[in-house]
Amino acid sequence: xSNKVYVDVLAxxxxxxxxxxxxxxxxxxxxxxxxxxxxxxxxxxxxAGGVGERxxxxxxxxxxxxxxxxxxxWFMEIENPTKYQKYKFKKDGRVYCCAECGKEYARRISxxxxxxxxxxxxxxxMKKNNPMKNAITRExxxxxxxxxxxxxxIRGGNGQITIPQLLLATALGWEMEYPVKTxxxxxxPSIYKIDIANPILKIGIEVDGNxxxxxxxxxxxxxxxxxxxxxxxxxxxxxxxxxxNNLSGCIDRVxxxx
Length: 258
Hints:
By secondary structure, the chain is an alpha+beta fold. About 35% of the residues lie in helices and about 30% in strands. It has helices at about 85-90, 100-130, 135-145, 165-170, 215-230, 240-245, 245-255; strands spanning about 5-15, 20-25, 30-35, 35-45, 50-60, 60-70, 75, 175-180, 190-200, 205-210, 235-240. The strands form two sheets. The chain has a seven-stranded antiparallel β-sheet with strand order 3-2-1-7-6-5-4, with no helix packed on it. Strands 8-9-10-11 form a four-stranded mixed β-sheet, sandwiched between helices. The longest helix is centred in the middle third of the chain and has 31 residues, at about 100-130.
C-alpha cells in the first residue's frame, strides 16, 4: 500500500504564467476547494517518494502538501498506514489521507443511508398508519387546534421571500429572486433564482434557513454556486440568524466585495 495517492486537480494559469491549483478531487469523487496557496517550491516527497513542484495549500483550514510531478500528474501524501488501515484497504479498496477525511466519508454515507431508509420504510409506514385518514381523528384535531387559536406558521424559502431576505435586500436596495439563465446546460434547470442580487455588479446573496444544513441540500447549493461562478457571478451566503442578529455586519461584508 503506497503513501502516494494520485488525484485530479482543477488548476488555472495566472496572468504571470504561474500554475495555481484550485480544487482537488479525491479518488472517491469528493471535491475539496483550495482556499489558499501559501508556498510553491521544488521539493521531494519524504513520505511517498518522487520529486516535483510542491504546493503548500490550505484546504478546510488545514495545510496540506500537493505535488505536481514532471510527468504532469498531481499526487498527495498520506500518513503511514496502520495495520488496520492496510486491512481495510485490502478489504474494500478505500484509504484516506487522514482520520478526519475518513470520518467525513463515514458521516456522509451514514446520512445518505439514513435518508434512503426513511424514504423507503418510514414514508410507507406513515402512509399505511396515518391517523389523519380517520375522519373522527381529523375532527378532534381540528376542534382542538381552533380551541387553542392555532394557525399554521408562515414559512419562507423555496421561492418565498423570508424576513431576513427582505431586511437585507431593503438595506442594500437590491433585487430579490433575480432569475439567471443557465444557458440550457445539461442536468441544470433553465433558470436559477438568486435570493438577493445586483446584476450590474454580478454579486448575488443567498440567505439560508435550516433546510440548507442537509448534506443533499449542500450539494445542490454548491452545484448552483459553481454554475453561477462560471457565468461571472460572485455569491455570498448568510444564515437567517446572521442577518437577524448582525445586519450591519452582513452589509459590511457585502460592501467589501464592491
